Amino acid sequence: MTGETGAEAHYRALESLYAAAPINRLFTSRLEIPREGESRIHFEIEPSHYHAAGAAHGTTYFKMLDDAAFYAANSLVNDFFLLTTAFNLLLTRPLKAGPITAEGRWVNGRRRVLVADARLIDAEGEEVARGTGTFMRSRIRLASLPGYARS
Q1: Tens of pLDDT along 49-74?
Q2: Which intervals hold domain Thioesterase (predicted)?
Q3: Range of the domain at 117
Protein backbone atom coordinates (compact mmCIF):
# COMPACT_ATOMS: atom_id res chain seq x y z
CA MET A 1 0.00 0.00 0.00
CA THR A 2 2.92 2.35 0.38
CA GLY A 3 2.97 5.30 -1.94
CA GLU A 4 -0.63 4.93 -3.12
CA THR A 5 -2.99 7.86 -2.84
CA GLY A 6 -6.62 8.65 -3.54
CA ALA A 7 -8.79 5.92 -4.99
CA GLU A 8 -6.05 3.26 -5.12
CA ALA A 9 -5.27 3.76 -1.42
CA HIS A 10 -8.99 3.49 -0.64
CA TYR A 11 -9.27 0.20 -2.61
CA ARG A 12 -6.25 -1.30 -0.83
CA ALA A 13 -7.65 -0.18 2.56
CA LEU A 14 -10.99 -1.86 1.75
CA GLU A 15 -9.11 -5.05 0.82
CA SER A 16 -7.35 -4.89 4.21
CA LEU A 17 -10.67 -4.28 5.96
CA TYR A 18 -12.13 -7.39 4.30
CA ALA A 19 -9.12 -9.50 5.34
CA ALA A 20 -9.39 -8.24 8.94
CA ALA A 21 -13.09 -9.13 9.38
CA PRO A 22 -13.46 -11.99 11.91
CA ILE A 23 -16.02 -13.79 9.67
CA ASN A 24 -13.33 -14.28 7.05
CA ARG A 25 -11.45 -16.64 9.35
CA LEU A 26 -14.19 -19.13 8.41
CA PHE A 27 -13.64 -18.73 4.66
CA THR A 28 -10.50 -19.08 2.59
CA SER A 29 -10.98 -15.95 0.48
CA ARG A 30 -9.27 -12.87 -0.92
CA LEU A 31 -10.82 -9.59 -2.07
CA GLU A 32 -9.49 -7.47 -4.90
CA ILE A 33 -10.85 -4.14 -6.08
CA PRO A 34 -9.43 -3.47 -9.55
CA ARG A 35 -11.27 -0.20 -10.17
CA GLU A 36 -14.16 1.95 -8.99
CA GLY A 37 -17.43 0.04 -8.85
CA GLU A 38 -15.92 -3.43 -9.27
CA SER A 39 -14.75 -6.16 -6.93
CA ARG A 40 -13.71 -9.78 -7.09
CA ILE A 41 -13.52 -12.28 -4.28
CA HIS A 42 -11.60 -15.48 -4.87
CA PHE A 43 -12.52 -18.23 -2.47
CA GLU A 44 -12.61 -21.96 -1.89
CA ILE A 45 -15.74 -23.97 -1.20
CA GLU A 46 -14.84 -26.60 1.37
CA PRO A 47 -16.83 -29.57 2.68
CA SER A 48 -17.28 -27.64 5.96
CA HIS A 49 -19.60 -25.30 3.97
CA TYR A 50 -21.92 -28.15 2.94
CA HIS A 51 -25.53 -28.75 3.98
CA ALA A 52 -26.78 -32.28 4.72
CA ALA A 53 -27.12 -33.17 1.01
CA GLY A 54 -23.43 -32.55 0.25
CA ALA A 55 -23.29 -29.15 -1.47
CA ALA A 56 -22.59 -25.60 -0.29
CA HIS A 57 -25.20 -24.17 2.08
CA GLY A 58 -27.06 -21.05 0.94
CA THR A 59 -25.34 -18.98 3.62
CA THR A 60 -22.09 -19.41 1.67
CA TYR A 61 -23.72 -18.11 -1.51
CA PHE A 62 -25.19 -15.14 0.36
CA LYS A 63 -21.96 -14.25 2.13
CA MET A 64 -19.88 -14.14 -1.03
CA LEU A 65 -22.51 -12.41 -3.20
CA ASP A 66 -23.23 -9.82 -0.50
CA ASP A 67 -19.53 -9.15 0.09
CA ALA A 68 -18.76 -8.76 -3.63
CA ALA A 69 -21.68 -6.37 -4.20
CA PHE A 70 -20.95 -4.50 -0.95
CA TYR A 71 -17.29 -3.86 -1.78
CA ALA A 72 -18.12 -2.83 -5.35
CA ALA A 73 -20.48 -0.23 -3.87
CA ASN A 74 -18.18 0.84 -1.00
CA SER A 75 -15.39 1.44 -3.53
CA LEU A 76 -17.37 4.57 -4.49
CA VAL A 77 -17.70 5.77 -0.88
CA ASN A 78 -14.42 6.68 0.80
CA ASP A 79 -15.61 8.10 4.12
CA PHE A 80 -18.34 5.85 5.57
CA PHE A 81 -18.98 2.12 5.88
CA LEU A 82 -22.03 0.92 3.98
CA LEU A 83 -24.73 -1.35 5.41
CA THR A 84 -26.72 -3.94 3.47
CA THR A 85 -30.41 -3.01 3.64
CA ALA A 86 -31.78 -5.66 1.23
CA PHE A 87 -30.39 -8.47 -0.86
CA ASN A 88 -32.07 -10.75 -3.42
CA LEU A 89 -30.54 -14.09 -4.42
CA LEU A 90 -30.93 -16.43 -7.36
CA LEU A 91 -29.17 -19.77 -6.84
CA THR A 92 -28.96 -21.75 -10.08
CA ARG A 93 -26.52 -24.60 -9.40
CA PRO A 94 -25.18 -26.52 -6.41
CA LEU A 95 -21.59 -25.79 -5.44
CA LYS A 96 -19.10 -28.50 -4.52
CA ALA A 97 -15.57 -28.12 -3.16
CA GLY A 98 -13.27 -26.00 -5.28
CA PRO A 99 -12.45 -22.46 -6.36
CA ILE A 100 -15.21 -19.90 -6.93
CA THR A 101 -15.05 -16.24 -7.90
CA ALA A 102 -17.59 -13.66 -6.78
CA GLU A 103 -17.72 -10.67 -9.13
CA GLY A 104 -19.35 -7.48 -7.83
CA ARG A 105 -20.47 -4.49 -9.88
CA TRP A 106 -21.95 -1.14 -8.84
CA VAL A 107 -25.22 -0.44 -10.67
CA ASN A 108 -26.72 2.82 -9.42
CA GLY A 109 -26.75 5.49 -6.72
CA ARG A 110 -23.95 7.46 -5.13
CA ARG A 111 -25.43 9.46 -2.30
CA ARG A 112 -27.33 7.73 0.50
CA VAL A 113 -28.38 4.45 -1.17
CA LEU A 114 -26.31 2.45 -3.64
CA VAL A 115 -27.31 -0.60 -5.69
CA ALA A 116 -24.84 -3.29 -6.73
CA ASP A 117 -25.06 -6.79 -8.09
CA ALA A 118 -22.82 -9.83 -7.96
CA ARG A 119 -22.47 -13.25 -9.49
CA LEU A 120 -20.65 -16.44 -8.56
CA ILE A 121 -18.54 -18.13 -11.23
CA ASP A 122 -17.35 -21.72 -10.80
CA ALA A 123 -14.01 -23.20 -11.90
CA GLU A 124 -15.46 -24.02 -15.35
CA GLY A 125 -16.50 -20.39 -15.89
CA GLU A 126 -20.22 -21.07 -15.36
CA GLU A 127 -22.44 -18.70 -13.41
CA VAL A 128 -23.94 -20.58 -10.45
CA ALA A 129 -25.68 -17.73 -8.61
CA ARG A 130 -26.40 -14.02 -8.75
CA GLY A 131 -27.73 -11.38 -6.43
CA THR A 132 -28.59 -7.71 -6.16
CA GLY A 133 -28.29 -5.62 -3.03
CA THR A 134 -29.08 -2.17 -1.76
CA PHE A 135 -26.59 -0.51 0.55
CA MET A 136 -26.84 2.68 2.56
CA ARG A 137 -24.27 4.87 4.21
CA SER A 138 -23.91 4.28 7.91
CA ARG A 139 -22.56 6.71 10.48
CA ILE A 140 -19.48 4.51 10.92
CA ARG A 141 -16.39 6.22 9.56
CA LEU A 142 -14.17 3.86 7.58
CA ALA A 143 -11.08 5.42 9.17
CA SER A 144 -12.36 4.33 12.61
CA LEU A 145 -12.42 0.63 11.69
CA PRO A 146 -9.56 -1.74 12.54
CA GLY A 147 -8.13 -3.04 9.29
CA TYR A 148 -8.97 0.01 7.21
CA ALA A 149 -5.58 1.68 6.96
CA ARG A 150 -4.54 4.05 4.20
CA SER A 151 -0.89 4.76 3.78
Answers
A1: 999 999 999 999 999 999 999 999 99
A2: 54-129
A3: 6-144
